[in-house]
Amino acid sequence: AQSVTQLGSHVSVSEGALVLLRCNYSSSVPPYLFWYVQYPNQGLQLLLKYTSAATLVKGINGFEAEFKKSETSFHLTKPSAHMSDAAEYFCAVSDTGANSKLTFGKGITLSVRP
Amino acid sequence: DTGVSQNPRHKITKRGQNVTFRCDPISEHNRLYWYRQTLGQGPEFLTYFQNEAQLEKSRLLSDRFSAERPKGSFSTLEIQRTEQGDSAMYLCATEGGGWSYEQYFGPGTRLTVT
User: Fold this and answer.
1) CA A84 remoteness from chain centre
2) Which residues fall within 8 angstroms of residue A23, CB to CB, at 6 or more apart?
3) A-B interface: how many C-beta pairs under 8 angstroms?
4) What is the pLDDT of residues A96-113, one digit of tens each?
């Protein structure tokens, strides 16, 4: 069975500061990994995905994540936070077969202070 | 707007009533997923369709829940004899053919059972 751990439920950073949101996964097969963002009263939007190509993945809005197999991690980073980054962020893992159902972590709420 | 629509956006019902939600996918997306999201948690997989065939159901999907996708187009999720524990956000996601592994989420239907 696959699982995702997102430690902590809330991260607060100052505008312009580094954003680091942690994600660790457990999977018995090589995983595909994803980060989604959810703004209030909206559905989830894909930020980026890792599907066994380059281990450093760049996504939308200046976010990137690095797949580290030895650490079973897929942490999300952004060099400089913007007020508009305030949202909930979910890390997810999927199977690589035809049914690519997602298993999500509990999510992390990112607050950005002016 | 991802192109996936869900109706209604909000539903308030009394315990014991039946409810039905609808998801309209992005045109030609043959894979469709239903997830349930409760407060403070990440979405949890409920069921998966490839075209009109329902290929997997989570054990979370009790016999009070039924989903259909006639003709491989829109999908409906019905909950019979609703319980207060059914209160949640119900999310639909669709994925195109090929192996993009990119799921596009609708805005969700928020169900409140009183």
Assistant:
1) 17
2) A4, A5, A6, A33, A35, A65, A73, A74, A75, A76, A91, A105
3) 61
4) 666 789 999 999 999 999
pLDDT at A65: 97
> Which residue of chain A is at minimal alpha-carbon distance from B104?
A45
Q: Does B104 touch chain A (CB under 8 A)?
A: yes
Strands A10-14 and A102-104: unpaired
User: CA nearest A32 in B: which residue?
Assistant: B101
Residues of chain B with pLDDT under 70: 97, 99
Kindly state whether A10 is in contact with chain B, defined as any CB-CB distance less than 8 angstroms.
no
Rg (CA), chain A: 14
Residue range A63-101, pLDDT digits in tens:
999 999 899 999 999 999 999 999 999 999 987 666 789
The DSSP-derived string for A11-42 is EEEETTS-EEE--EEE-SS--EEEEEEE-TTS
pLDDT number for residue B2: 78
> A101 and B44 in contact by Cβ < 8 A?
no
Q: What is the pLDDT of residue A98?
A: 65
β-pairing, A87-94 with A108-113? Answer: antiparallel
Tell me if chain B has a CB within 8 Å of the CB of A44.
Answer: yes
A111 has a chain B CB within 8 A of its CB: no
